[in-house]
Amino acid sequence: LVFKQIPIFIFAPLAGICADRFDRKMVMIFSAVLRSIFTCGLFFLTGDGASLILFLLFILTILTAFFEPSRNAAIPQLVEERE
């Protein structure tokens, strides 16, 4: 639980800045591709890799912290206000 909450707490402000300053589409693509790569890395772990699993989950949470603000900021650009 700690490995899922601390990265969001630390990186959410930085992720919001990135969502505002950079192209949201590219931030979303970049973080989604990296998340898929690290998720595939979970499949290749064997044996006693508990610390590596926690590290990968930590990285995945950081990347999610960058994806979500960009996604939320992009929604108003896709639909009209009344929708």
Describe the protein's topology.
Elements: H1 2-21, H2 24-43, H3 50-78
Helix pairs in contact: 1-3, 2-3
Provide tags for this entry.
single chain, 83 residues, mainly alpha, 3 helices, 83% helix, elongated
Short description:
This protein has 83 residues and is mainly α. It has helices spanning 2-21, 24-43, 50-78. The N and C termini lie far apart (36 Å).
Report on the architecture of this protein.
With 83 residues, the protein is mainly α. The protein has helices at 2-21, 24-43, 50-78. The protein is elongated.
Helix content: over 70%
Can you give the mean pLDDT? 82
What sort of overall outline do the alpha carbons produce when their principal axes are compared?
A: elongated
Distance between the termini: 36 Å
Describe the largest sheet: none
Low-confidence stretches: none
How much is the radius of gyration in Å?
15 Å
Note the total helix count. Answer: 3
